Task: structure prediction
Amino acid sequence: MTSFSTTAGISKDIRHIPLSYNNADSQNSALRLVLTLFPDWEHDDGKIEFVRFTDGITNTLLKALKRRPGHTEEEIDKEAVLLRAYGKGTDVLIDREKEAISHSLLSQHKLAPDLLARFQNGLIYRFIRGRPSTPQDLASEPVWRGVAQRLGQWHATLPVVSAGKTAVVQDSVEVPLTISIPKSSPSLEAINAITPNKPCPNVWTVMQKWVFALPMTNEAEIRRKDVIQEELERTVSELGDTPGLGGDGLVFGHTDLLSGNVIIKPRSVLDRNSNIETVAFIDYEYAVPSPVAFDIANHFAEWGGFSCDYTVLPTRSVRRAFINEYVGSYARHTRLGAFEDLVPRLFDEIDLFRGVPGLYWGIWALIQATISQIDFDYASYAEIRLGEYWAWRAEEDGSRAREGKEMPLREKRWAEE
Result:
C-alpha cells in the first residue's frame, strides 16, 4: 500500500498540461490536449474520435478514443480517455486542487480510474466501460444492491481520522481546503469555525463556504442568507456529532451519487447470472469527509432525478435492505466484527438526515443561479430542494401536524413501509 505524508507528493505526481479546453472550439482544443498526452496518436494508424457524453449540470464530458484498425471495441475502450472540463465559475463551489488529489487517492485504491493529467480547466482520466445509470436504474434492486456494496467498500477503504484540525484519509494523506473564493470572503478559519471540534474540510465546512458565497445584492438576498446561516448552524448543532462510522463520525463521502455518476459495468461470464450489478462511481469534485448518513441520504434523494420525483424514493423496507447490504460490504472491507446492531442505528441516522441534502443542494443551486451558463433553471431547483429541507423540519418539530397541514409527498413516501 502506497504511503504519503502530505498531499504535495500526490499533486506533484499528476501531470499538468498548460492548455485549456474551449467549448466554442471543442474539437480542436480537445485534440490539442489529447495529442499532448498521447503524441503517438497523431501518426499511428486510425482515426481519433470524440464523443460528447453530456454538458451535465456543471461540466462538459468528452470521450477521446483512437480507432486503431483491427481492434475490437473493448480494446479501443481500454485505451480511451475522458476529458472533463469544468463549468465556468464553478471554482467558487468546488476546490479543484482537492478534487484532483481525491481522484488520485481513489485510483490508488482501485476505486477510481487512473487520473492521467490535469489541464488548465479540467482533468483527463481513463475511460470506464459501462453505461451511466438513470434515476430509474437506481430504484432497480440489482443496481441499488450494487451501489450499497460499492459504497460500503468506498467508506471502509478510505476511513477518515483526526489529525489536529486537518481531515486525513487512509495512509495519512491530508485533504486540503484551498478554497477558490473571492478575496473579500471570510477566512478559512471562519469557514472551519462551523465545526470547531471536527477535522476539516468536511461536508459542514463546505456548506459554510457556500453560504458565505451566496449573493447579497438586495435586502431579500441578505435576509435569505441570514436565515440559511441560522439553519446551517442549527443543523450542525443537532446532527454534527452523529456517531455514524469512521473517525469523528466521518467517512470519505462521494456526496454526489446521482444517477449519472453511477456506472453500471458490463457483466463478465462469471457474473452473468448474478442478481447484483457491478457498479463504479465517477466524478469526485464534491468528495469530502461527511457523516455516512449524509452520503446515503443524499444518494436516496437522487433516485428522484433532477425532476425531484418523490414517488420513486426508497421506502422504509427498501432503505433497510440497502443499509443491510451496505453494512455487510463495509464489514467485509474492515475488521468490523458483529455489525447487526449497526443496521438499525444507521437506519435511524439516515432518517434524521433525510432533509439535509435539500439544504446542501439548495444553497448550491442558489449560487449556480448567479454563475452558471448552462441552460437549467437553478433558481427553481433551489426552491424545490430547500422546500425538502423545510418539509423535513416541519415534520421533525411537529409544526406541520399542529397546523393541520397535509403531509408533503416526499415525507409521505419516506414514511411508507
